[in-house]
Structures are given as structure tokens and as C-alpha cells.
Amino acid sequence: MRDALDRLFTIVAGRIARLTGQPATFIVAVVLIIGWALTGPLFDYSDTWQLIVNTSTTIVTFLMVFLIQNSQNRDAAAMQAKLDELIRAVDKARGQFVGIEHKSDTEIEKIRADLEEECRLEAERGEASMKPRSSESVERLRRRY
Predict the structure, then answer these.
(1) What is the pTM of this model?
(2) Which of 12, 43, 67, 87 might form a disulfide with 49, Cβ 3.0–4.6 angstroms?
(3) Do residues 18 and 70 make contact, with C-beta atoms less than 8 angstroms apart?
(4) Is the model's pLDDT at 145 over the cut of 50?
């Protein structure tokens, strides 16, 4: 029963997430807000008129938070599984990195700092002459965004 409910929720959440991410959905939302704004004079900008859009947008936002979080959780889990498989499949990769996403932020930062130090030491010894330094890789990624 629970598996069926999970599967149904995943299907519904995925479809809604894809639908709401489309330009046409954004245009529909803008048209609805413009339509609501244009009806203001008809309803003399009453409290009820304002309450309609406030309540509607609050409900939609509240529900979308859960759908978006579900989609992000699934995407992150799938990405971690793929990365774990790559680590497992590559001969020189270190298996201890599998599952580090479950560690605390402090532990992950320590691992990252240790890796950067390791790369720095390799570069000093000339062992990583073909590999870019970690700081260069980070800077290259930062320039992308």
C-alpha cells in the first residue's frame, strides 16, 4: 500500500514539477494575476477581492514547496547513486567517499580541506603536473557562474 502511494506521489509530483517549470505555465500565472488586477475596480478593491489572490497564492506556494522538495530529493539521491557508482567503478577512486553526503557540514569541509592540501602537496612534489590544482579548478568553476 505504501509503495503504491509513494509511486503515485512520485508520478504526480514529477508531472506537476515539469508542468509548472514550463514557460506556458508562467504566462498563465501572469495572465491570471493581470485578470485579477483588472477586476479590482469591479469589486471596488474590496477586502474579499484582495483575500482571493492572497489565499490562492499562499495555498499554491505552500503545496509547491512540498512538490519541489520531493523533486529535489529524488534528483539529489539519483545523483549520489550515480556518483557512488562512478567511485566504485573507477580503479583509482577511493571508496571511502561513497556516502559522505550523510556527514555533517563540518566533516565535509574537513574532507575538502584535506583533499586540497593533498593536491597542494602533490603539486609541490611534481606528482600532479598534468592535473590542475584544486584552487585552479575551484576558480574555473566559480567563473562559470
Answers:
(1) 0.62
(2) 43
(3) no
(4) no
